[in-house]
Amino acid sequence: MFENLQERLGAILNGLTGRGALSEADVSAALREVRRALIEADVALDVVRSFTDRVREKAVGAEVLKSVKPGQMVVKIVHDELVEMLGAEGETIDLNAPAPVVVMMVGLQGSGKTTTTGKVAKRLSERQGKKVLMASLDTRRPAAQEQLRQIGEQVSVATLPIVANQGPVDIAKRAVQAAKLGGHDLVILDTAGRTHIDEPLMAEMADIKRTSNPHEILLVADSLTGQDAVNLAKSFDERVGITGLVLTRMDGDGRGGAALSMRAVTGKPIKLIGVGEKMDALEEFHPKRIADRILGMGDIVSLVEKAAETIDQEKAAAMAKKMQAGKFDLNDLADQLAQMQKMGGMGGIMGMMPGMGKMKDQLSAAGLDDKMFGRQIAIIQSMTPKERSNPDLLKHSRKKRIAAGSGTDAVQINKLLKMHRQMADMMKAMGGKGKKGGMMRGMMGGMAQKMGLGGMGGMPDLSKMDPKELEALQKQVGGAGLPQGGLPKGLPGLPGGGGGLPGLPGGGLPGLPKKK
């Protein structure tokens, strides 16, 4: 979502950090470029003006000019103001109210309200153990109520039975009553949308609000709609009174201006973001982490959280035992590839690592894209169980059969086997040090070696860290805040950076320890 903005701001701010001292003219010139980059990213003009004025006020002054590294100080100020613009602290759906808590979903048609309703219900029922009831109030769109019913079956959440010819206000009354009688903790009302904002829509929303007395009114907005999303948020807030925002399609290739503008314009927090089409592709919105990603500082904490959610602990324990015995066959490799796919693939993982967001072209050139995982899994699945357990059996005739079965060729099979050998050697070297999560580190190590980045085998086991240790690591690699002295070590292109780029001697992954 923020790739273009990240590239523009990165280039501008890198120009500042390379200088020993900054004048007011230097800062003004840089802020002109920042302003242009934000406007091109579809950020509202009033928000851009306010942002650059605040940065200039803090950046131009004796404190900055006397600083040892004034350029880095300016980057810190930009970072802090980005966090402020996005909403200093992340907020989640507030359920602190007498049951059943009523959550009302509003928005225009096509923004993803019904799907998001299902995602929110699934998240709250699975993660917080809430008993949820969903109700569709959309009587205008054909099959809208049936769509929510099917989503309810898919995510194992109850939906209000459909009664023909009943109006939205009556359905809302019935949903709240049914939730009370059924002992539900939460009822989510999926309201109707329109293709544009009109008076009948707003009147209907006001009537539903008056009838159901919702504790939360969440505006679901498509993050790809740019400035229109900001006007939409203002209109709904003025007429209905929203309590928070949910941005959908944050995994798209839009310019990200809506996300940066809506919080600043409405003063309402962005509570959740949709990052994919699957029903579990919903994340909490963390302003600091988003600001870190925009400025190319990575997001280690989110990466760790995603790993904790996707890694099968039983499999991890079984594989750890195998690793302790120095065993690592192609079945294990297939499990690791599937695990990385669940975490968002190479692009998703690298996008959260400090300094790696700028290297997608180099990764693609090295053949390290998400399609690679699919090809490699197909190769392994085309082998017999005996071949997977003992790769030494794979001679020319067998490779020819596997290539035909997987739609690949002998060259790709040889690359896979070479990577497996490197990883198996690494596992043997780690020997008795095997712990849960170690296999994933080995997997990333093999990938990193192929990229010419050195190994990740020395990466600490993040899944074992307590929150304080994670916070410390996040600060070290440029995550949840910047140290007072300026930018952290390990950011490519900045003074003091320890991370090398692919193909350069001694390159370890930026912000992470190099393999010894």
Automatic annotation (TrEMBL):
HAMAP family: SRP54. The keyword RNA-binding applies. It catalyses: GTP + H2O = GDP + phosphate + H(+). It comes from the Bacteria. Its EC number is 3.6.5.4. Its main location: membrane. Keywords: Cytoplasm, GTP-binding, Hydrolase, Nucleotide-binding, Ribonucleoprotein, RNA-binding, Signal recognition particle. It holds the Pfam family SRP54. Residues 476-516 are annotated as: Disordered. Composed of three domains: the N-terminal N domain, which is responsible for interactions with the ribosome, the central G domain, which binds GTP, and the C-terminal M domain, which binds the RNA and the signal sequence of the RNC. This is Signal recognition particle protein. Residues 269-282 form the SRP54-type proteins GTP-binding domain. CDD domains: SRP_G (cd18539). Involved in targeting and insertion of nascent membrane proteins into the cytoplasmic membrane. Binds to the hydrophobic signal sequence of the ribosome-nascent chain (RNC) as it emerges from the ribosomes. The SRP-RNC complex is then targeted to the cytoplasmic membrane where it interacts with the SRP receptor FtsY. Interaction with FtsY leads to the transfer of the RNC complex to the Sec translocase for insertion into the membrane, the hydrolysis of GTP by both Ffh and FtsY, and the dissociation of the SRP-FtsY complex into the individual components. It is found in: Cell inner membrane; Cytoplasm. InterPro entries: AAA+_ATPase (IPR003593), P-loop_NTPase (IPR027417), Signal_recog_part_SRP54_M_sf (IPR036891), Signal_recog_particl_SRP54_hlx (IPR013822), Signal_recog_particle_SRP54_M (IPR004125), SRP (IPR004780), SRP54 (IPR022941), SRP54_GTPase_dom (IPR000897).
